[in-house]
Amino acid sequence: MSTTSTFDLDAFGRRHIGTTAADQQRMLAELGYDSLDELMSAAVPASIRMGEVLNSAIPAAATEREALAELAALAAQNTVRTSMIGLGYSGTITPAVIQRNVLENPSWYTAYTPYQPEISQGRLEALINFQTMVEDLTGLDIANASMLDEGTAVVEAMLLARRASKSPSNRFVVDADALPQTKALLASRSAVLGIELVEAPLAETSDVAALGEHFGVFVQYPGASGRVWEPSAVLAATKAQGGLAVAAADLLALAVLTSPGELGADVAVGTSQRFGVPMGFGGPHAGYMAVRKGLERQMPGRLVGVSVDASGAPAYRLSLQAREQHIRREKATSNICTAQVLLAVMASMYAVYHGPAGIRHIAVSTAQKAAALAEVLTGYGLTLASEAYFDAIEVHVPGLAKNVVARARELGVHLWEVDEATVHVAVDETTTEAELALAARAFGLPEETVVPVDVRALPAGLPAGLARTSGYLTHPVFNTHQSETQMMRYLKTLADRDYALDRGMIPLGSCTMKLNAATEMQAVTWPAFANLHPFAPEADVVGSLGLIEQLESWLAEVTGYDTVSLQPNAGSQGELAGLLAIRGYHDANGEHERDVCLIPSSAHGTNAASAVLAGMRVVVVATDELGNVDLDDLRAKIAEHAASIAALMITYPSTHGVYEHEVKEITQAVHDAGGQVYVDGANLNALLGYARFGDFGGDVSHLNLHKTFCIPHGGGGPGVGPVAAKAHLAPYLPGHPLAQRPDHAGGFVHAGGPVSAAPYGSPSILPISWAYVRMMGAQGLQDATAAAVLAANYVAARLREHFPVLYTGEHGLVAHECILDLRPLTAETGVTVDDVAKRLIDYGFHAPTMSFPVAGTLMVEPTESEDLAELERFVEAMVSIKTEADAVGRGEWPADDNPLRNAPHTAESVIAGEWAHPYSREQAVYPVRSLVRSKYWAPVRRIDQAFGDRNLVCACPPVEAFA
């Protein structure tokens, strides 16, 4: 931390960075350096160090109050009107008990992906509730733990259909009445994979076979127009020729309409946004996917299942993890490695809180509002495009649509102009009778018009033949917590089963679990940001667009690029967007043969998966014994594929946590071969303020705002993965047909295909990163980098005599993370990396990253936000665990009965029955004295992973299973 920020008591930097100036001097002394500048000069290669930025776009650091005041001024530039736009985004009421106890609760939003299931049982239960909710409503056998949004879920369903179909065809039939953003995504993603899209008005198509052979069909249910129709014949015709049937279904509508599964769909996809998650100008929202039995191993994303722990008790875990992209790499069928966990939790709790009766009531009342408005409008002589609808109608107003929409806006309501003769009107649970009357007035009805709503029964607008008769949400969890007291206690019970940053350090290498400051989070729930429809007129979203433009310019500056797109709503999607930009650039230059993507063997698994999805061929480049790219092998691969090189993907600092000194030589070799350089920005937090990707040869990078720029991981999502690029790639970055503006910061226009359903991805959480940069300033960002590098090197130095540090750079230094090699320990004692990870739970820690990028190791990233006492607590735990392992190696404890092999220890396991182990109860649960008053108790013992895959159960188990 700089001298200035150390003594500025109002500076946010001293709140964000955990170590004080005095702490840092002690740590530096341990490493043999006098100052942070000296340490960073030794760690970061001089060849890539950036000079001073003149005329910086990043203003001097603001205080927390100043930043909130500026955010409030931006929010004030937005105008929140009643949205009746629909098109996949609906107004919704977030129950206050869910907003306060989930969305605004660090126990939920600071947790990590549940890869350590023993300390993730709370959010895993919430996710299995989500899966059960989706399975019930869609009428299908198995659902995953969420997708990124509806549009990308449809793309994933298309790819699943192509994998699973028995048809040799490469054609996919798309409902003409699909959402416009979904059609744009399908067009963009299918083009690079050689899939032919055939669009047809399926509601009016009596013979699907006439459309030609195809591997799948996609219907929107209800349609984008609001139309409700019976698609079972269309679905059956596709299945008869060996194709798969995909339906995008509105979850709320499924409370009153026959489910897709009952209609014959193989796959159902959609969004859970209207289950209590604000529109947020487009996201984040939890998409969903459900499939019939037999397709579960084809599903992308995450799947929560039920297994058993060491005592035979039921326990939740992520199932079928071999599907994960970091294992399958270029053989992966999807590059999605994340989910929208926090939003899926909110949606599931919406169903838990309302129960089946409440959900049906909301659905019926919503349908009645649409019917009431339709009755008033048709009574005035207007005609509708369809007589069957759920929550949306389209009204014929030849030549007057623009006038109607403008009049509605004057009255405070947003309608949607379909074409010059048609206006789209959608209602939701928030719509009032007064707002319905305003909509009616927009169509020219008298000012005194009233639109009375009768919510006692289903309206006539819903076809009787499609009325739902099957049950849903029958599990006790959806029928127990309807009072706020019950709900509050249920959420607290689940949160207490988890380990999140509010309990202690999560030292996950490559994942960067640092502070998500309360001030950064504060604006997320402000109505002026949360209640905007993503397709609202530009004039109504000036504040949000201004915030986006500022953040784009700041991110461009700190990365050394010219332009940034914030559309990708996950790091994996940012990777894909960057590679698609490279592909678009080569194609525009007539170099269609360039399709080889060089990827080091140590790279993040998503790199290879993203390259395949961008239509590229993966060629692996070796790494040397220090973890650096093998320059000889790189040159050989370039020579072998000279005319075909499209790109190199390289992570910097390396995936091994080391600053590679030859990075400029690497990038130059690729450029000389005519390729582009993609620098994976996952480790930007070790570089920020000291070097920039664009300065040492990068052409394009994705960033992880949920890592470097403080958006919370939220238990496994949300995330934002912006893509930053040099000017020559700007035209090929993701655009969007419904974006309010074509240009971005710096005046660059992005005209590539979209990668997310909404124009700006997940903008409701961008105020978090905006606030972080605004409160840190350029100097604070640099201070954070130095503090992170210092923390990692301090931990490495303190543990080096106990565990070898696998990779280091010059001067024996690491970057922001270090890899502890446990393989010698395993060879000497039989204690595995799993044993150490589970034993750390008994010490009150989430384990570091296991076996990535090297099997049998732990990658530790302490981040800049942890204080010295917490770093020392971790060091103490690891040294103590090494002592325990050595005792096993000496034969003092049996290899199959010791504190490590039996970890984690639950309270029940040390209290109930006879204690027959060769170590004491105290050794089991209080291995260090500091735990006596602050113990985190794992709710389950070690989980049997293989049992869960052999006996796949991915819905809420019966209550008696826990008896």
Any overview of this molecule?
InterPro entries: GcvP, GDC-P_C, GDC-P_N, GDC_P, PyrdxlP-dep_Trfase, PyrdxlP-dep_Trfase_major, PyrdxlP-dep_Trfase_small. Belongs to the GcvP family. It holds the Pfam family GDC-P. It catalyses: N(6)-[(R)-lipoyl]-L-lysyl-[glycine-cleavage complex H protein] + glycine + H(+) = N(6)-[(R)-S(8)-aminomethyldihydrolipoyl]-L-lysyl-[glycine-cleavage complex H protein] + CO2. One of its GO terms (biological process) is glycine decarboxylation via glycine cleavage system. There is one protein chain. By secondary structure, the protein is of the alpha/beta class. The strands form 7 sheets. Strands 2-8-7-6-5-3-4 form a 7-stranded mixed beta sheet, sandwiched between helices. The radius of gyration is 28 Å and the shape is globular. Helix content is 36%, strand content 11%. It starts with a helix and ends in a 13-residue tail after the last helix. The longest helix is centred in the middle third of the chain and has 39 residues. Helix 5 packs antiparallel against helix 25 and helix 9 packs across helix 10. The protein contains 31 helices and 25 strands. Among the domains are: 250 residues, 3-Layer(aba) Sandwich (Aspartate Aminotransferase, domain 2); 112 residues, Aspartate Aminotransferase, domain 1 (Alpha-Beta Complex), CATH 3.90.1150.10; 242 residues, Type I PLP-dependent aspartate aminotransferase-like (Major domain) (Aspartate Aminotransferase, domain 2, 3-Layer(aba) Sandwich).
